[in-house]
Design brief:
Layout: H1 2-18, H2 24-49, E1 73-80, E2 83-89, E3 101-107, E4 114-121, E5 135-144, E6 149-157, E7 167-173, E8 181-186, H3 199-203, H4 217-224, H5 227-231, E9 242-246, E10 252-258, E11 263-269, E12 276-283, E13 290-297, E14 300-306, E15 317-321, E16 329-331, E17 335-336, E18 347-353, E19 361-367, E20 377-386, E21 389-393, H6 401-427, H7 436-452, H8 455-467, H9 500-510, H10 514-529, H11 540-556, H12 560-576, E22 577-578, E23 583-584, E24 619-623, H13 630-636, H14 644-657, H15 665-673, E25 675-679
Parallel strand pairs: 17-21
Antiparallel strand pairs: 1-2, 2-3, 3-4, 5-6, 6-7, 7-8, 9-10, 10-11, 11-12, 13-14, 14-15, 15-16, 18-19, 19-20, 20-21, 22-23, 24-25
Helix pairs in contact: 1-2, 6-7, 7-8, 7-9, 8-9, 9-10, 9-11, 11-12
Length: 684
Amino acid sequence: MSNILDTTAKDDVNESRKSAQCSQLYTSNVTICKIHLFVLILFLFGNASGQSYKAFHPGEIWRDNNGIHINAHGGSVLFHEGKYYWFGEHKGEKSNNALVGVTCYSSENLYDWKNEGVALPVSGEKHSDIEKGCIIERPKVIYNPKTRRFVMYFHLELKGKGYNAARVGIAVSDRVTGGYKFLKSLRPNAGIFPANMTEAQKSRKLNIADYEKWWTPEWYKAVKDGLFVQRDLETGQMSRDMTLYVDDDGKAYHIYSSEDNLTLHVAELSDDFLHYTGKYIRIAPAGHNEAPAIFKKGGKYFMITSGCTGWDPNAARLFSADSILGEWIEHPNPCTGKDAHLTFHSQSTYILPVQGKKGAFIFMADRWTPKTPMDSRYIWLPVRFQNGLPVLEWQDPWDLSVFDKQNTEKEQVTALIRRVNDHWQATHPQHGNAFWHTAAYHTGNMAAYNVTRDEHYLRYSEAWAGKNEWRGAPSNDKSKWKYRYGETGEHVLFGDWQTCFQTYIDLYSLQADERKIARAREVMEYQMSTTNNDYWWWADGLYMVMPVMTKLYKVTGNGLYLQKLHEYFSYAKDLMYDAEAGLFYRDAKYIYPKHKTNSGKKRFLGAGQRLGIGRPGQSLVRFAGKRYTPERIHRSFPLHGPGAEAIATARRTLDAEHPRRQASPRIRNERNSLFYLRLPVGHQ
């Protein structure tokens, strides 16, 4: 601006020299008028082209630095050297075909975006894979620190062939904004079966001509068994809607919709990100998923997809896995609220991690307008967590401060967990036995470790397990093993002695050593070999042993654990569950009408009742306290600050219960040994 003003002033001086009739006053006035006019023009046009945003407005026009609606659809965002780069499809006014190529925008704050131009232009060369008029969709860019190159993958359909090519295109650049050099297009993993197809599925010969009629039960089964995998084995697997993901260990993966959009594939890439290693898996065969968007939080992988309904929106799908090449589990639609069944009239494209805000992610989606493609809008929403799973809610407008609030809540809860757990461990340097009152604490300690990743918590449980030789009740004489109530070493089959196995299995999962779960397997597999199914006749047994059986199933793959769990639970439910009240009785001794209150009513709260603070549906963080009398509660917890209201409720409850809880040594032991504090879920 200063250069322009200087030029204007010089022009005025020259003008005055040429015209003797012009007075100095006239010259000054002209100069001032020109400056005013320039500032006015700059304000009018600069305000339109350089609009600054302070929040996200999902579904509205989103202007770049030139005042033009951002044209980067089906895209992704890469963070590199302090700046975000948004890559996407350039859409035409009336056509979804690639007439320009892949565009790039940059931003330092995620609100305001500068147009960096075309990162990958289409080719004018006849019969080029990316010839002008082809279809380029869902471009994703990742950075390879080993080669120092930026790698772009995209769904490619060859010009004039509709959606029959189903190929992936690959391009590279030495600069983040491009230009990107197109290298090749292909169908992935030719001649290679997925790692999670069974030998029986690989060897079964399926003929596509035998399944001309789609959507029949026989067809579904054939698809799940690899009908389309076999069809495309020689040429490579179809690759349409896609994304890329770089894991914490630097390994990169290509996730794409394959098998005629019926099945998702996750394929491992080579170290240079330009080839496939041949290791890949199938997810949800015949599930009809597309538009994958993947992220990782707390060591767990999450993927949001959509159904296949053309340009029309549908309900989002959610999957999770402990390993990116492991078993993926489907969950309900992560969207909630109005229009959740239509993903707020949009379709997923990418999950963006927000830099500098731990655990903060943005769900990126497109609201398609196929009649005027370049006018398609962007739906960006914050990802929050509930019950350990991502949740999407409509917010308009919103800004990045929502993540500060989430992090603040997490920090408060984490601080409270640490305070309580550290107090217990400091006052209990000597490890107890493996009976339920100590074992239940260690399940909570492992939950605290998963939240805080405090190695001290992990070592504390490892030392306790070692002290107890990774066993529950110690008897080795199976002829004397009992499962009715008892605290002796022969009550091996009594659930109170089996709670400890939960922690042993958790520790095994972190570092495999068969010694850690040998006793758990010996006890549970002996128990399952009996014909008895009445092992759980008290409600606490469900908490104490059901997780043991599911965890052992996951470790061993032995389906008998799930079968027997169902049998035992069915017995317990038939015995103790009151359908009218929707509650379990405490145990077999309190079942109505055999047992009644003094006023003749049902009694659901027995002597073993635990103290719960908070609303239903929240998770438990368990804390074993030393003699948790009201006086100790008063001394240990503050009257103000995080959790003060919950602590006040705990004080009042214990104050009221304290006199009657002196009744017997067993009740005193229960009161002294375990204190349940309910905390909001999703703070992981």
